[in-house]
Write a structure and sequence with these properties.
The protein has 140 residues and is mostly helical. Helix content is 74%, strand content 0%. It contains four helices and no strands. The protein is elongated.
Length: 140
């Protein structure tokens, strides 16, 4: 009787681990795609962004466009790697989500609503990747 209960607990752990990793993969990929589009808008010098004066971390919008484009491309690649539950993608996912948080914090004056949303999504990605242990996961 105890073995069946233990087996059910393990199955539940595997399901949660797989679900959290899939959640992180989807959210990181979506955040990366939107960062790519945001980067293209910044590079094209579109009128979507509002340029503010007297901001401490002031960059040219084209510079911010390149930062978001590069971070977005890396996030999409890592997000695809997370679907395979690889260790390098989990470590890279935490790192790139942290960099996305920093980049969005610094670009708050240019696009405030999406920056806050991207910070929250990236925080959930970091949580989902850190709460799952490697020994809780089976090969999918």
């Amino acid at each position: 009787m105890a073995t069946s209960h233990s087996r059910q607990d393990q199955t539940t752990k595997y399901a949660w681990a797989a679900g959290l990793t899939a959640f992180a993969a989807v959210m990181l990929t979506i955040t990366g795609l939107i960062a790519i589009f945001r980067g293209i808008m910044g590079i094209a010098e579109d009128d979507v962004f509002l340029a503010t004066r007297n901001y401490v971390f002031e960059f040219d919008l084209t510079g911010w466009g390149w930062v978001h484009l590069i971070l977005g491309a890396i996030a999409v690649i890592i997000g695809i790697g997370l679907f395979q539950a690889s260790t390098w993608a989990r470590v890279g996912g935490v790192a790139i989500a942290g960099l996305i948080i920093i980049a969005n914090f610094l670009s708050l004056p240019y696009y405030p609503v999406w920056s806050v949303v991207a910070i929250a999504i990236s925080g959930f990605v970091i949580w989902a990747l850190c709460v799952t242990r490697r020994d809780d996961m089976r090969s999918w």
